[in-house]
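Weekly puzzle thread! Below is a chain. First person to post its structure in token form gets bragging rights.
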Amino acid sequence: MTEKNETIEDDIGLSKMTSLGERVSYWSYFVGQSMSYTMLAAFLTSYMLLIGVDLGKIALAMVVVKIWDAVNDTLFGIIFDKVKFKSGNKSLPWLRISSALIPITTILIFIIPRGLDSSLKLVWVIVAYVLWDAAYTLSDVPIYSMATTMTANVQERNKLLSLSRIFALAAAFILSMIATVLVSEQVGMSFPLVAILTSVIIALTMLPISIKGKERVDFTRAVEDSYTIKGLFKYLNENKYLLLYYSGYIVFGIAATGSALGLFVSYYLFGSALFSVVLQLIQALPMILVTIFINMVLKKVDKFALFFYSNIVFALMSFIMYFVGYKNITLYIILLVINSIPYATIYILNLTFTPDCVEYGQYKTKVDARGMAFAIQSFAAKFTSLAQPLGLLILGFFGWKTIEAESFAHLDKLVKTGEAIQSSLALKGLWFTYTLVPAIGAVLAIVLYSFYKLNDHDVQIMARYNMGEISKEQAESLFRRKH
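Winning reply:
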């Protein structure tokens, strides 16, 4: 290895630029953000299935929201890159605003008055979801962008982002278990009350970054004011890895119809909504092991290689689970435990690639369009919530019966009286939507991911070039593959 190569490799191990308190506050923000997202991703579909509105109409309402989402995220990406605050900070002002708005809008979407007719309920869903979506955008772009302004060290940045996914995963896991118990037929708490209690925690965990966070990396060298909307589309066309990665991410996410239907799968196929708590506890150990060892693994294995092969294993296991079925509970649980290992790896890593694409985009175009890049990430993350209407549409095709109930306790009474019993075909559709649709989505995503060629080594070199520390010729001579 040349002296030049040794310098680059040594720089990967530079000491941290952030303090422990700052890092903890950064990760804490993801706890609250994840809880808000989990309330919608894991419980909104169940809530919608109990408000007595036709599944097709609910699905259409959710799709309408995503149309706004496409505009919302793109506009904020431009605003984020253009707006300059007197403090000189790029992310912190937005994070302070979102810390207040996200808890409020999370509550709003779960307090639909039961006395409204179905049309007004749909209007409520659309308005509340649009407001939540806007609040979430104000949080998502800045918090991920802040990882690049807190530190210029790629390895420290990777750790910040990968551990943020671990905190988010832990928050989602804990909330899913506790909220499931609370809304189950045994406890019978209403969804609005659970949303209010959760939102208090959301507010408390999102606040610390506004106090402890520091933006210390100066990107004024980059040409960030010279592009228009037309220029942004040109940037996206030139940043092939950003488009490739998030195309795969969206396909995988939209097909993840199982997570939104977990409560109904547990209740109708396994006998109780509480069974989903059992399944989450069973998956906890392998997921904890992944979170403990992933950073050690990343020191030995390239991040994207680990992510790519985890997708392959997840797809294979999901196909097996579908064909094995749910009647052999022991075998199903064994397969679920195995599949939770690649799933946890995917979840922890899946939003850590945007900074890499930002470095690549700036390297190729000399434009620091991180706001646009993180807006695309935010858009992709929220666009995957189309898994909810997709799941509802598929259930509708299988003849799922419309239900109106205040809680799972109420649903249980309706089932016992024969008012909410689903047909055999509907139950087969539930299992199909829960297992096979995600497997198909994973396969399609793998095809797209196979064209993604960035690696940690080359990204670190791009970061050095973007900071003005080495020339383009030096960077190109050190790459492991041509970009």
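Puzzle host: Confirmed. Bonus trivia for everyone else. Confidence is low (pLDDT under 50) at residues 1-13, 221-227.
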